[in-house]
Specification:
This protein is α+β, with helices and mostly antiparallel strands. The protein folds into two domains: 38 residues; 48 residues, IHF-like DNA-binding proteins (HU Protein, Chain A, Irregular). Helix 1 crosses helix 2. The chain is elongated and about 60 Å long. The two termini are 18 Å apart. The strands form two sheets. A three-stranded antiparallel sheet has the order 1-2-5.
């Protein structure tokens, strides 16, 4: 599913216009992006938790030259931990 499909589905289920739903979805995503940008955790009850994790600096192998070691700098990544409800839905729909 892509964003346009999500907007269409929500609009049809809520009897709202696609334009109104698109505005809400865009604002929702903007708030999630901003909050993660400040490294705050987002907890959506019944859905899951988003958080920012720091990956430490580490030593790796240069993909162009397997004999060369390189330092991979520290970085941040986004983590998502689904709720128990989401896990059960995914598990039961194999």
């Amino acid at each position: 599913m892509n964003k346009a499909e999500l907007i269409s589905i929500v609009a049809s289920k809520t009897l709202k216009s696609k334009k109104d739903v698109e505005l809400i979805v865009d604002q929702f995503l903007e708030e999630i992006t901003f909050t993660l940008g400040t490294h705050e955790e987002i907890k959506l009850s019944g859905f899951g938790n988003f958080s920012v994790k720091e990956r430490a600096e580490r030593v790796g192998t240069d993909p162009n030259n397997t004999n060369t070691r390189i330092v991979i700098p520290a970085t941040y990544s986004i983590s998502f931990k689904p709720s128990k409800i989401i896990k059960e839905v995914v598990k039961s729909n194999k």
